[in-house]
Amino acid sequence: MGTLRDLQYALQEKIEELRQRDALIDELELELDQKDELIQKLQNELDKYRSVIRPATQQAQKQSASTLQGEPRTKRQAISAEPTAFDIQDLSHVTLPFYPKSPQSKDLIKEAILDNDFMKNLELSQIQEIVDCMYPVEYGKDSCIIKEGDVGSLVYVMEDGKVEVTKEGVKLCTMGPGKVFGELAILYNCTRTATVKTLVNVKLWAIDRQCFQTIMMRTGLIKHTEYMEFLKSVPTFQSLPEEILSKLADVLEETHYENGEYIIRQGARGDTFFIISKGKVNVTREDSPSEDPIFLRTLGKGDWFGEKALQGWSWTLSVLDVEL
């Protein structure tokens, strides 16, 4: 009997050990899911800002290499047609081209950009400027719009027609209206990765790299300047060093809410810290589902909430524009 009890005890220990291992596996899987979610979020942000940061870095590297070789400054400036000014005053005086379009064409271009994996994370203000700056282009049947290996400087949105996309002679797909193509050449300053030929007469909208990069840098610098001024106007942040404020401005994301919308719901998981830039919000607490929420206070410009979200490893900083 003693041997049987020993076996039963050992079996119970093993069962408990397996239960603890299962619980640990569940916990690790949950942590892995959370980290996968963070990686995806960071990847989206990387795609969003790489279009500005990478070309600027490459240009700076070119200029640095030329300086080491003793090349005259005037010759270095002629290397690239991309905008090289990074001062907000200089960029604010740049006049971008404007091409009139029908409301249908504007909507088509906007929806095409929002449907594109590499451009959908742009700010709406940037998308609007891109829409305004795109100009019309037409190609006849059997024309080559993009040739694999060439240096590209244009991105297209198709309004009418159909094209065939091939890589190394192998057909990849056909595309119709409402599609973006050629975007990699202006986002990452690389050669064309595929060939695009027309199957019928096509009508396109196009924008060149110089115009695109000017929009990216100007809107980015304007937003950064606006956020810096806003943060400096918040009493709590006024004592922070300039470099800290600059880093906060870099990670701020502007979010808009209509009157009556919920921003945070009691009991929900929070991962965002909010600062109000415009409008007012009411803070309430619900002690019982059967009772009306209790009003606590009203917050306005410069106030913040959701600060507990900063205690975790996954969080977002957001600046609010609340409609009254």
UniProtKB/TrEMBL annotation:
Q: Which SUPFAM superfamilies is this protein grouped with?
A: cAMP-binding domain-like
Gene3D superfamilies (alphabetical): 1.20.5.170, Jelly Rolls (2.60.120.10)
Give the InterPro entries listed for this entry.
cGMP_dep_kinase, cNMP-bd_CS, cNMP-bd_dom, cNMP-bd_dom_sf, PKcGMP_CC, RmlC-like_jellyroll
Q: Does the keyword NADP apply?
A: no
Q: Which Pfam families does the record associate with it?
A: cNMP_binding, PKcGMP_CC
Does the UniProt entry include the keyword Hydrolase? no
Using the record's annotation, list all stretches that form the Cyclic nucleotide-binding domain.
118-233, 236-310
Q: Per the record, which residues fall in region Disordered?
A: 57-76
Biased-composition ranges for Low complexity?
A: 57-69
Q: Which domain of life is it from?
A: Eukaryota
Q: Which UniProt keywords apply?
A: ATP-binding, Kinase, Nucleotide-binding, Serine/threonine-protein kinase, Transferase
Molecular function as annotated in GO? ATP binding; cGMP-dependent protein kinase activity
Q: What is this protein called?
A: Protein kinase cGMP-dependent 1
**Organism this protein belongs to:** Catagonus wagneri (Chacoan peccary)
